[in-house]
TrEMBL record:
Protein's name in the database: DUF1013 domain-containing protein
Compositionally biased region (Basic and acidic residues): 189-206
Protein's organism: Mycoplana rhizolycopersici
Location of region: Disordered: 173-211
Pfam family, one: TrcR
């Protein structure tokens, strides 16, 4: 991996202010156009940028700058870094320990059944398998299909719950919302909703009771009570 200069424009500002290097030398080192370096020297560009000392950052040495100042044709070279940062390896299928590899088909079957929205690439990242194996388990053509039992990959230790939730969330994005038929909900017709319950008709009939009939019944009850009291006084 080729080493790159940190903050090229800020470095160019420092070189313009603190060295006698030519515009071409600074432009070549900072990957800028010579006219842009001239604009920095004239104060027309990078006015708000603070210069960055490449010597302090370990990207240039004083001897290299002195050689370039003495020879206008000398091209500045970056200093070798004191610390090497290892390059990030390209992510591949998740490594699965040998002791757990026999559980992968069961985990794949569980993912296929419980999370059909997951793509083959996502399942491969979770349990460290190949797309052909996933396809065989999905189509029941795997050599051990008869003995497979779905098992949670998190329980088996093949992936973490966080990784599984993240992949499920990614797969769920952009999916259409479930329809009413899928949710098992149906709307009743307007004709059905307009029908009142049978009990409401009874309540309406109870409200329409004749007041005279009620008072007549109360009078008869009172007269019967008076007659009973008279009979008690006679005895």
């Amino acid at each position: 991996m080729a080493q790159q200069l940190l903050m090229p424009k800020a470095t160019a500002v420092w070189l313009v202010d603190n060295t006698a290097l030519s515009f071409d030398q600074i432009a070549q080192f900072c990957k800028l156009h010579p006219l842009e370096v001239k604009a920095i020297a004239d104060g027309e560009s990078a006015q708000g940028i603070k210069g960055l000392d490449p010597i302090a950052t370990g990207q240039l040495s004083r001897d290299e700058i002195a050689r370039a100042e003495a020879n206008p044709n000398h091209k500045l070279k970056l200093s070798e870094p004191k610390v090497r940062v290892p390059e990030s390896k390209r992510k591949g299928p998740r490594y699965t320990p040998v002791s757990k590899r026999q559980d992968r088909p069961n985990a794949i079957l569980w993912l296929v059944r419980n999370h059909p929205e997951l793509k083959d690439a996502q399942i491969s990242r979770l349990v460290g398998t190949t797309k052909s194996t996933i396809e065989q388990i999905r189509e029941r053509t795997h050599w051990n299909s008869a003995n497979l039992a779905p098992m949670d990959p998190v329980t088996l230790g093949l992936c973490s719950q966080i990784d599984l939730d993240l992949e499920v969330e990614r797969a769920s994005k952009g999916r259409p919302l479930p329809t009413a038929a899928e949710l098992g909900a149906t709307l009743e017709s307007a004709r059905e909703t307009e029908k009142l319950p049978f009990g409401d008709h009874e309540r309406e009939e109870e409200k329409e009771i004749d007041a005279d009939a009620v008072f007549a019944k109360l009078k008869s009850l009172k007269s019967n009570r008076d007659e009973d009291e008279d009979d008690d006084q006679r005895f």
